[in-house]
Amino acid sequence: MLLTHGPNQWNYLADDSIDMQFNCIAIGKASAVIAQNGELIIGFAAILFGDACPTSLAKYDDLKAAAYIGDVVVHSDYSGKGLAHSYSKVQLNSHQLKK
Fold first, then answer.
1. Mean pLDDT of residues grouped by 10 in the chain (99 residues)?
2. For residues 98 and 28, what is the distance between their CA atoms, to the nearest angstrom?
3. Neighbours of 8 (CB within 10 A)
4. Phi and psi (nearest 5°) for 22?
C-alpha cells in the first residue's frame, strides 16, 4: 500500500525514510497507525517518539517530550476525505499513551 498509493505529485517516499520509520516501529520508538475499511488498509502513518524525531525539532522542544508524524499514506480511492488530517489528532493521543 505504501509504495502503490504513497508516491504522488505532492508526496515522495524515500526508501531510507521508510526503512528508518519501520525500524523505529520495530524497536518501540514509533507507532504505526493503520486505517482500514473492512480488510482493506486505506491509511498508514508513522508516529515517531523522542529521539526518533528529527533532530531539527530539538531547537523548539526537548525531544524526549516530542512526537512527530512521519510518512502518511492514504489509499488513492479514499483521498480528499479527511483521513490524513485525522492523523494529527492520533499523534496527540498516541503521545499521551506513550508517556
1. 56 75 93 90 89 90 86 84 73 50
2. 10
3. 12
4. -70, -35
Residue 10: which domain range? 2-98
Find the CATH number of the domain harbouring 61: 3.40.630.30
Collapse the DSSP code of 79 into the 3-class scheme (helix H, G, I; strand E, B; otherwise coil) and give the result.
coil
- Here the cell at position 15 is 526508501
Q: Render the burial of 17-56: b for 16+ CB within 10 Å, e for the rest.
A: ebebbeebbeeebbbebebeeeeeebbbbbbbbbebbeee
What pLDDT does 6 receive? 57
Q: What is the pLDDT of residue 61?
A: 85
